[in-house]
Input
Amino acid sequence: MPLALEGSQAIARAVALCRPQVVSAYPITPQTHIVENIAKLVADGALDCEYVSVESEHSAASTALGAAAAGARAYTATASQGMLYMSEVLFDISGLRVPLVLTCANRALSGPLSIWNDQSDSMAVRDAGWIQLYCTSNQEAIDTHIQAFRIAQETTLPVMVCVDGFTLTHTMEPLELPAQETVDAFLPAHRFARMLDPQAPLTIGTMVGPEAYSEVRHDHHHALLAAADNILRANADWAAASGRDWGGLLRASGPADARIGILGLGSLIGTLEDAAEQHPELPPTRIIALRAFRPFPFEALQAICADLDELVVVERAISPGAGAIVAAEVRAALSELPRAPRVHAVAAGLGGRDIGIGLYPNLLEVAQNEKIERFRIIDLDPQRLPEELSA
Amino acid sequence: MSNKPRITPGGVAQAGAAMAYHTGSWRTQRPTHVHAIAPCHHACPAGEDPQAYLALLDEDRPREAWEALVAANPLPGVTGRVCPHFCESACNRSELDEAVAIHSVERFLGDEALAQGWAYPVDPPAADAPIVAAVGAGPAGLSFAYHALQLGWRARLFDALPEAGGVCRSAIPTYRLPRTVLDGEVERLLSLPGLEFQPHMRFGLDFDLQDLLQDHAGVFLGLGTQRPHPWDIGGAIPADLHNGLDLLKEWLDHGSIPSYRRVAVVGGGNTSVDLARVLKRAGAEHVYLVTHAALPNQGESPGDEMPALAREVAQALEEGVEILTHKGVHRLLLQGERVVGVEITHMKKLPDASGHAVRTAFEGTETVLPVDAVIPAVGEVIDPTGLEALLNGAPYLKTDQDGFAGHALVYAGGDMNGRSGTVTEAIGDGRRAAMALHARVRDVEAYAPLSPIAGWEQINPAYYEPSPRIQETVLPVAKRTGCAEIEPGPSAHQAHREAGRCLSCGMCLACDNCFTLCPDQAVLKSPENLEDGSRYVFDYDYCKGCGLCARECPCGFIQMIDEY
Amino acid sequence: MTAVPIPLSDLRRRQPRFTGISPGHRACQGCGELLAARLVTEAAGPDVVVANATGCLEVTTTNWPDSAWRVPWIHSLFENTAAVASGIEAALKAQSRSSKVLAFAGDGGTFDIGFQALSGMIERGHNVLYVCYDNEAYMNTGVQRSGSTPVGAATTTSPAGKERLGKRHLKKDILSIIAAHYMPYAATATVAYPADLRHKVRRAIEVEGPTFLLVHSPCPQGWGHDGSRTVEVARLGVQSGLVPLIELERGAVTGVMPIREPRPVADYLKAQARFRHLFADSAEAARELQHLQALAEHNIERYGLSAPGPEAHDSEGADTVRRGGNQWA
Ligand SMILES: Cc1cc2nc3c(=O)[nH]c(=O)nc-3n(C[C@H](O)[C@H](O)[C@H](O)COP(=O)(O)OP(=O)(O)OC[C@H]3O[C@@H](n4cnc5c(N)ncnc54)[C@H](O)[C@@H]3O)c2cc1C
Ligand SMILES: Cc1ncc(C[n+]2csc(CCOP(=O)(O)OP(=O)(O)O)c2C)c(N)n1
Ligand code: SF4
Ligand code: SF4
Ligand code: SF4
Ligand SMILES: [Mg+2]
Output
């Protein structure tokens, strides 16, 4: 029976269903409702875990790291500045190969200050060595968090589940929360073989010299690549258990004969799918939700794009001075195809700018341009630009 | 296949894997255990190692402590009472507060052994072992015989007197050396299997050197100095002259001596002081001790101090003996044959033209001291009978350090060598002579000189808590009357406590400092004592040679030496 | 040479004390920090989990594939040790495990960059013993000044020169700051008094809640003294009054190691090259020397360090030796 839940509340309850043993968090909009809800579950006795209200995101990540290294199922959540503040620790967590789950309630970065949604924060730490999964809806967010805990413990890699701030986190909608037994059956009790244990003392976090550092990085890189299988299996098993299949690494919708594709991450996918339905007059479009950004799904992407002529990548962040982030990687991946589609890059919805149905025709226009769109913010308001740029 | 370690997820390492890395290769210096000689050991003429037996007593192993003690000195009950304790003058602890009262512990162990009936840890020599001779059963001769037995010889000991003990029996008063102690130790020694005591045998009269050499594998002479030094004042000698040594013997043998009202003793050595104290006990109102020297430790130049033991002098003063320092007897005042007084003058030893110190009387300082007797106690000299060839006219029998008298297998020691003058030195002479004779005859290595010395600079004073030396109890003057011993000696508790004051100079005291403080855990501990006497061993695989252990070793047992 | 009845490696396995750190570590000869860590782990025993900040202790003990640690140990970063320890502690609690969590950091990782995390850890009441190995500068990065560096000490970022006499600012009074957290137990200790150090570690471990130990640990490299003098220098620090050994419970002083006869601060300073310039023939140098002397006297007054008379636990009696080693311990 679906429940009317706010996205954050749903995520909190999904996390609770996974029985985390240690939750550490520091508040930041729009992540706050998630951790507040978990705190309340703990306060009400509905969740038995150590809830550590740390004094900073740096410590939130560090506490989660310590807890995970000590063999506990650990969880934390953050956004934006918090993500940057803990970024030093993020690299460390993955490098030490310690499994835990983090929710990123995606938000723009300062300055100037903005509390609104885009994906600059998680994109800024894409090289942190974490698995990154992007959710298109709150139902997917519920299911992905449950899968994330299993992926983390199977791969001994940390998993970041990205959920668009406000758009998802603060939206109320009817959602299916799985039964506790279903989750328990899907998610085995937590176990971390290298855990800190006086009975079997190990040293975690040694100094590695030039003679072996490259090998450590190689190992880490391959562990991430290999995690694709775990993501797929978790998705399939959860689909069998729940009846909901989120496609694993990516998911495509639209008519099979579409020659144009639109690729995006997160909640904008739902908007695009609605728009496509509302615009049957426009050319058929394949809408691709990139669920796993790390590991980057090279093969799956090549397969889903092989028959396309045009692909528009919608960025929710910008790499100033270069522009595209996701598209740069997509172009590189598709360049291996014998007949690759043209890849256009646009950014939309930065700093909370609304992404509406109206974006869809604009994207198709880009696809049909003569020139490849290298990169452009598509929803600019020229009137707000300085004069010299508004021309 | 390569045996390079393969990386693990996250670079995890196994516990203690660093043991594979041997930091010992960094070292340029290495710590070593060096059993340096404690200053007390070095200073003891008898060769005792007080550090060793203090340590054993501190570990509450009194019998082993005593055995370590009698390895060098068979008469600790005697020396614990009468020795001027050379050891204590050298004790490093005096730099910290006060020297360890070693003699108290020595005495305690000596007495404890007598009380418990402990036997010397000496194996009897073989029945057909060669036999050596010792003439004179004083401390020197007794010690020689004892050490000869320890080295596997048999020994024959001769003395002119009916009983052994030498001056300890004939002159040292019982109030400071009770007969029970002397008898106990001497009898225990004489009854050792392999030792044969022949009393009433006077060398030079009943037998001579030739006889001895004929029958024995070696000879030791320890005849002491039995003859009073000749004495007169400008040629005058009182008619009823007694000399000090005779009077002491009389008192020791009969418990009485002529009583005087006012008496002057001339001297400054042990005999004069003991005699003065005995005279006081015998009832003299005034006992003057006239000496040209200063009191002990108050001399103005070398040789300007009474040779008597400081402690005895102090007790004599307490008992009312009047010591007239820097004075000399200038003239006897006689009424007929009878002494009625002495004229004394101020006197000092001053260098003459050639730089020799000579006694100088100062004109105009003459004072008359009315006395009814004057007794010289100005030292004793050798009785040369039977020694003429060896002495060759000299007042003493010259020997080398080992006691070799330069003739055949003849050794000598004790008072007769002109160097020694105490019981302890005599015991040491006897011991060294036995070892030297043994080394020479058996062609084994002579004992090694004692080095290096663990001086004060080797001690780390930070680790020793100040702790006062025991205060020996002495009978109040009023009770010091008869022959009873005036110092009751330390209690067992006091002796143990005093043993605990020892700094253990130069020898591991098992404090654990090196074991605890090595940043590299390169000091390992063993449950049992190791060959070097400690329980610690360096693991040079890991020792970086920082030298911390050596510096923090409280007692200087660890020394750094260069690696290359 | 000593004859040992069994191979050393066997003897090592049978040592009477458990030590959390093995030899083979790469610390300098006579390193006070490694000595301190050794003593702390010895007192703490095997049932611990250690979180360790970046610094000399970490880089000298964990050179992959080697590790000198015999207890479970994790290094994360420089400033987050208290937070990592908090997480470990929370995990142990969640798993109903009872091992004690130890957090180890240098003075840089404690007084400066890691202070916030430490404050948070204490405020939240985690059951962690936090040990700061205080060698009074950032040693691992080459002897830069820290909030713990004493005034007048030369470091590579507070060098002495024509215009400067080393560090111009006072050593941060970290203990008072820690104690102000309504701390159950906070104490100072030093490598010069191992018995006192052990006692404090055990006391701190007994407490169910956050505890703090500041261990003065001379660094031969950074302080400029011979490695053999590490303990001696540490001892002089205490005996001069510059390094007070105290215990605080809920902010109140509950224990001090009294000083029988204070040594002049100059004795301590002279032993170290980092204070050499204070002995120059100038009025400024003399004034700074007096300043340090006054700081020591201030400590003595403030904590009542003057001993009324000799006692077993004063700075001269505290580590006096006995023939104790004959016991197998
Ligand atoms: C009054 C007095 C007090 C003293 N107090 C102290 C003191 O407090 N502490 C201290 O350390 N020292 C003291 N001394 C000195 C100490 O007693 C002597 O240094 C020591 O006894 C010398 O020992 P010895 O074996 O060389 O000679 P002696 O003790 O003199 O023994 C020589 C032995 O040889 C025997 N003998 C001699 N001639 C012959 C012979 N021809 N044939 C056979 N046997 C012979 C004697 O009978 C005697 O038994 C004192 C001496 C005197 C006189
Ligand atoms: C965030 C961060 N800043 C700076 C450093 C560089 N760094 C590593 S160790 C260290 C100094 C450590 O000093 P301290 O904590 O006193 O330990 P010590 O080496 O003296 O034992 C510094 C500055 C770092 N590792 N991380
Ligand atoms: S303290 Fe340790 S490393 Fe230093 S010299 Fe002694 S045994 Fe060697
Ligand atoms: S430091 Fe202590 S245990 Fe080590 S050798 Fe010296 S006395 Fe012996
Ligand atoms: S630099 Fe100092 S703290 Fe670092 S290892 Fe060397 S002595 Fe120890
Ligand atoms: Mg430091």
